[in-house]
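Tokens in:
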């Protein structure tokens, strides 16, 4: 197994030179078992950065924390300077984070709502700052950022949207839902920020696609989209790209403005290493997908590595880069494999999230 920072990397063509950094949230394996007063196991959460443009890992890039709740949502502000962790408990009554026996006095406790300012990294002063919790849903909220503010739409089922304005410091409810949307179920990954049009796209479990405009509180039906079965969805230039690993195309594309499906083809469904070895990357189910500019996307996934006596001692992460071309802005999309990188993260029992920084 490779040490931290080592990499198995082969490239089919030159990629973007801009920084392409993925935050990897993990559960640590090398910590003593800690329990709160109710006997609930407390887990240590760590954060690692994978710089895909350089092929390097920076371990423990953010302050770690202790957590005995669920992990909740991990969201980056669209301004790019703040990372939010939101949710993880079923009710506010569970929010008791008293110090526990065996924990260090310097340990940070996750209280289901915090943020970290990335601009303070160079100052060496990055800390997790406690923030207010959403009013109605403190579990695993559907959250997205628009123009520096954080919006929350519920968990599984829609409720009145809420907004968190960092300059104010608390959540506020927006206009009530239209009657036809009350109680509607939202698809996994079904809330997408659309800053180009100052709105959110919200996809319901029945296939209906809505646009929500926070400025006016208006909801607008925007057609139907039935291939949205999975949570990895990215919006680029009014086109929704959906990672559908069970389909032949591996990727589904939908033009929101035209309300029309685009035909997706691959120049090759296999990635070929320089030594001639070939791996069919399109057979994998990836956990996250990100757009990094210039028509380039990264997908991310992970798998456990067995340690002594069958225990998990590290996690192996894999990142797949591909490029999308849409000739003449037409109805055809051509995808080309670009790069595959694999990185091992030691002392890890689970990867609980990926986020583009």
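Residues out:
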């Amino acid at each position: 197994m490779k040490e931290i920072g080592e990499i198995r990397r082969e490239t089919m063509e030159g990629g973007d030179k801009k920084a392409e950094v993925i935050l990897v949230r993990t559960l640590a394996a090398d910590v003593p078992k800690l329990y709160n007063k109710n006997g609930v196991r407390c887990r240590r959460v760590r954060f690692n950065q994978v710089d895909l443009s350089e092929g390097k890992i920076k371990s423990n890039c953010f302050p770690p924390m202790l957590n005995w709740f669920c992990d909740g949502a991990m969201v980056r502000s669209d301004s790019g300077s703040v990372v939010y962790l939101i949710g993880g408990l079923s009710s506010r009554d569970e929010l008791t984070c008293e110090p526990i026996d065996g924990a260090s006095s310097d340990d940070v406790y996750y209280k289901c709502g915090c943020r970290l300012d990335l601009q303070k990294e160079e100052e060496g002063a990055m800390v997790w700052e406690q923030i207010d919790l959403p009013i109605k849903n403190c579990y695993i909220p559907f959250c997205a950022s628009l123009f520096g503010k954080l919006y929350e739409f519920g968990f599984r089922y829609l409720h009145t949207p809420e907004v968190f304005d960092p300059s104010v410091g608390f959540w506020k409810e927006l206009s009530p839902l239209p009657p036809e949307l009350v109680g509607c179920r939202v698809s996994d990954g079904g809330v997408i920020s659309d800053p180009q049009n100052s709105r959110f796209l919200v996809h319901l479990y029945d296939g209906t696609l809505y646009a929500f405009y926070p400025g006016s509180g208006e909801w607008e039906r925007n057609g139907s989209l039935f291939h949205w079965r999975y949570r990895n969805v990215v919006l680029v230039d009014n086109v929704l790209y959906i990672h559908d690993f069970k389909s032949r195309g591996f990727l589904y594309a939908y033009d929101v403005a035209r309300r029309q499906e685009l035909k997706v083809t691959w120049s090759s469904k296999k990635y070929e290493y320089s030594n001639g070895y070939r791996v069919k990357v399109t057979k994998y189910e990836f956990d996250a997908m990100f757009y990094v500019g210039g028509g380039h996307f990264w997908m991310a996934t992970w798998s456990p590595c067995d340690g002594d006596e069958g225990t998990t001692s590290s996690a192996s992460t894999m990142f797949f880069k591909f490029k999308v071309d849409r000739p003449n802005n037409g109805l055809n999309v051509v995808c080309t494999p670009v790069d595959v990188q694999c990185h091992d993260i030691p002392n890890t029992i689970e990867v609980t999230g990926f986020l583009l920084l």
